[in-house]
Specification:
Chain B: It comes from Pyxidicoccus parkwayensis. Chain B: InterPro entries: CheW (IPR039315), CheW-like_dom_sf (IPR036061), CheW-lke_dom (IPR002545). Chain B: This is Chemotaxis protein CheW. The complex is a heterodimer of chains A (690) and B (148). Chain A has 690 residues and is α+β, with helices and mostly antiparallel strands. Chain A is 45% helix and 21% strand. Chain B is mainly beta. In chain B, 11% of the residues lie in helices and 48% in strands. Chain B has three helices and eleven strands; from the N terminus they run βββββαββββαββα. The longest helix of chain B has 6 residues.
């Protein structure tokens, strides 16, 4: 085990790189599969897939993970064949390749968990090897009957697929010809340009490729366009389309010929790809000077910044005290302001560092849907419209399981079988869309939309044993009950803890976001999630209630209002909930004192002077507070210990006095403790929602 | 092999915790109450940049609350991944306890103390009770011990 020390040093980098390459490999394989399905070649994706696997193989050999090397090697071999076949892959090949990728991924995970990589599963290599023989046995469209008569300069600029297209076309009875068009100023003046020639030729022939060739050409020009065509038209018609002489027509196929030339030139091509990978790996994959950083280091930078922010608060107070005592603090105050600006900029910079592209986070979803397509037998198309929105890595990591749940639910529960869909007059193929919008005040909105059968409120109610919910929010409430499932029999997919309660726990409890539901029977369902872009550093309103200070995220507060105790309305029988008028509608005012269990002996009934209006399940609710102390930037520390992980408390922060200040999530606090006392149990122990 | 223990007092009685489980001692200047936390949780305190919950030993042992004094201490203990404080009346001594000095508590104590005391050590004329720290702090889950 001499290599073990080196391995340990290299492993984190290896894992990160392998992870990235696997992501790319999955993407390209899915693209290949999509092409295979439509009977098309996809040479670029085949090549990219090959490239990713080749690099994985190389890296794995460096850290001496033999099983991964073997799997990657055999996958490469079958891809090399596919590349020779012009990027065409037999449909039966996709599944073993998927399996291979899954197995590699599994082994990378094992390494990440500090375990040994398991040996290659029985039969996999044989299945991959069988692909090779199958592919070479049945072969791609055999160009044996025709060979191309191309000069070297031309040949080198054709891809394997293009070459195959020409030979295949020639083999099927068309003429493969090279039509030369020589542009000139006079011709351009009379409207004959490469574009017009292209158009005219398109009516006569299938254009495989147009190659500009520089160098002395007929008619004294220095540029020729060589159009490689497959056609039934005669030479004269073609020549006329190219504007006549000095253009020319030449036949490319010299049948019959040896089968070799068509295949031989392609051989070095993949090798060239491979060696290119080895030669210039850095520029290729880290283009634009990107740097990979471990998250723990970013966390550390954030910690340091947090300390600075706390220190600034203390400084601010010390200066305020000096000012109050009559000291000349004008310059100090100015410095403090500048310092505040710098900290804000610094904060923005660090947050930017922690941002990841939502699109990157979601790259596993197409694979998930593919798996579901197979396991459910439903036809599904996943559409991602996520643009270039970005999220804090910490938020993204927590959010992904929720999105996986929603997409899985959509395919598993919401979409009908193809027959049902046809019967309902819908297209056979169901659509699941994931859309993001950047919302104001540091929030990101994500929608998971399906065009399935919609949620049947009656069935949900019957299953949960509750009255039929009359609003969508109430319906969501029932769906989010722990352990609730709309499936009768737990099958392979729904048996894996499909609860919407997990989605809500992540979105609402962990991230302090919002979850909404819109569903139309027969037309589909939309889940709308609003989550903060970052949860570590936030702008907060600090206020006082029952003698203690609390903070809430500015983004969660819709409005601040003054409350005139004389204008509060107390509806009879509403157990102390009072109403306040706001722009023509009645808003319930909750006593924050009571919610916090800090009701004073004088029983003022929470009629504070100010109130914060928060949306709780879509409805505005006012929380009365005693005094607003202002707005400031805080560092949120989440409370991990089960003793203090309670609904309504998002975490704690230090406002500079060394004493923790609670950061409240008012909507969750109200929901957990107000009249309809639905007890939301906290997550037990170390369980992680998956 | 005698083991170093931290000795602290709650309501006149002496208790001990292996020093290896104790990170540090802090004087107590009040904790931030957390609404909805179990009743024996005094609240949150900040210790070297970390925010930790503090369990009030008096409340946990079912003893009447007293005015906290300068003697009050928070014994900061490590419990696996968790760091939790225990608020005690005072703590000013460390003791080396020989396993021979340590005996299981009498059955009556076992029952009466709800399992908080797991052994009793005789130190000269004094009786020092070894506490079951995980049990005193509370179960892994907030709802586990039926306190809520």
């Amino acid at each position: 085990m001499t290599g073990s020390v080196d391995l340990a040093d290299f492993l984190p980098a290896y894992l990160a790189e392998a992870e990235e390459l696997l992501g790319a490999a999955h993407r390209h394989l899915l693209a290949v599969e999509a092409s295979v399905r439509r009977g098309l070649a996809h040479p670029r994706a085949v090549r990219e897939l090959f490239r990713a696997l080749h690099t994985i193989k190389g890296l794995s050999a460096m850290v001496d993970v033999e099983p991964i090397v073997s799997i990657a090697h055999w996958m490469e071999t079958s891809l090399r064949l596919a590349d020779r076949a012009g990027g065409r892959l037999p449909e039966a090949s996709v599944e073993p390749l998927m399996e291979g990728l899954r197995e590699i991924e599994g082994r990378v995970r094992q390494l990440a968990a500090g375990k040994q990589a398991a040996p290659v599963p029985a039969g996999l290599l044989e299945r991959l090897e069988a692909l090779e023989t199958a592919a070479s046995g049945t072969g791609p469209t055999k160009p044996a009957s025709a060979a191309l008569d191309l000069d070297a300069a031309l040949s080198s600029r054709l891809s394997t697929a293009e070459r195959e297209q020409l030979t295949a076309g020639a083999a099927s009875g068309k003429r493969a010809v090279r039509l030369d068009f020589v542009p000139s100023a006079e011709r351009a003046a009379s409207g004959i340009t490469i574009n017009s020639v292209r158009e005219r030729v398109a009516k006569l022939a299938e254009t495989v490729k147009v190659l500009p060739l520089s160098g002395p050409a007929a008619g004294g020009s220095s540029l020729t366009f060589a159009l490689l065509l497959l056609t039934d038209a005669g030479d004269d018609a073609l020549l006329e389309a190219a504007g006549g002489p000095p253009g020319s027509v030449r036949s490319l196929a010299s049948a019959p010929a040896a089968p070799a030339p068509a295949r031989a030139p392609s051989e070095p091509e993949l090798e060239a790809v491979a060696s290119r990978v080895d030669d210039e790996p850095e520029e290729q994959r880290r283009g634009g000077g990107t740097l990979r950083v471990e998250v723990s280091r970013l966390d550390e930078a954030m910690e340091r910044l947090a300390a600075l922010v706390v220190n600034r608060s203390r400084l601010t107070r010390a200066v305020a005290a000096l000012t109050a005592a009559g000291a000349p603090t004008r310059e100090l105050t100015a410095i403090l302001q500048e310092n505040g600006r710098q900290l804000r900029d610094m904060r923005a910079a660090i947050i930017r560092l922690r941002m990841v592209k939502v699109a990157d986070v979601l790259e596993r979803l197409p694979l998930l849907v593919r798996g579901l397509r197979r396991s459910t037998g439903k036809q599904v198309r996943l559409e991602l419209e996520v643009g270039d929105a970005e999220l804090d890595k910490a938020v993204a990591d927590r959010l992904l399981p929720a999105l996986v749940h929603l997409v899985r639910n959509a395919v598993d529960h919401a979409l009908e079988s193809p027959e049902e869909r046809l019967a309902a007059g819908k297209p056979e193929e169901g659509v699941v869309r994931l859309i993001t919008h950047g919302a104001a005040s540091g929030l990101l909105e994500l929608c998971v939309i399906d065009d399935g059968r919609g949620v049947d409120a009656r069935a949900v109610a019957a299953r949960a044993g509750v009255p039929i919910p009359t609003t969508q929010d109430a319906l969501l409430e029932v769906l989010c009950r722990p352990g609730f499932s709309t499936r009768d029999a737990a099958d392979a997919t729904s048996g894996r803890g499909m609860g919407m309660d997990i989605v809500r726990r992540i979105t609402v409890d962990q991230l302090g976001g919002e979850l909404r539901l819109e569903t139309k029977p027969g037309a589909g369902t939309t889940f709308r999630l609003r989550v903060p872009l970052t949860i570590t550093l936030l702008d907060a309103l600090v206020f006082e209630c029952a003698g203690l200070r609390y903070a809430v995220a500015v983004g969660s507060v819709e409005e601040l209002i003054d409350v005139d105790p004389a204008k509060l309305v107390r509806p009879a029988g509403a157990s102390g909930v009072v109403l306040v008028e706001r722009r023509g509608s009645a808003v319930p005012v909750l006593s924050l004192e009571r919610l916090l269990g800090r009701e004073g002996p004088d029983g003022r009934n929470g009629a504070g002077v100010k109130a914060l209006i928060v949306r709780q399940r879509g409805e505005p609710v006012a929380f009365a507070v005693d005094r607003l102390l202002g707005q400031q930037e805080i560092v949120l520390r989440t409370l991990e210990d089960p003793l203090v992980r309670v609904p309504g408390v998002a975490g704690a922060t230090d406002l500079g006095d060394g004493q923790p200040t609670l950061v409240l999530d008012l909507a969750a606090l109200g929901a957990a403790r107000s009249g309809n006392s639905r007890r939301r149990e906290s997550v037990p122990g170390r369980e992680r929602a998956t | 092999m005698s083991v170093l223990h931290v000795v602290f007092k709650v309501d006149g009685a002496e208790y001990a915790l292996p020093a290896a489980d104790v990170l540090q001692m802090e004087s107590y200047t009040g904790a931030t109450p957390v609404p909805g936390a179990p009743s024996h949780v005094a609240g949150l305190v900040q210790v070297r940049g970390r925010v930790i919950p503090v369990v009030d030993a008096r409340a946990r042992f079912g003893l009447p609350a007293i005015q906290r004094s300068l003697d009050s201490r928070v014994v900061v203990g490590q419990l696996g991944q968790r760091t939790v404080g225990l608020l005690v009346d005072s703590a000013r001594e460390v003791l080396k306890l020989d396993p021979a000095q340590v005996k299981p508590p009498p059955p009556l104590v076992m029952e009466g103390a709800r399992g908080f005391v797991k052994a009793v050590a005789q130190v000269g004329p004094r009786l020092v009770m070894l506490i079951d720290f995980p049990r005193v702090i509370g179960e892994e889950t907030p709802d586990g011990d039926g306190q809520r």
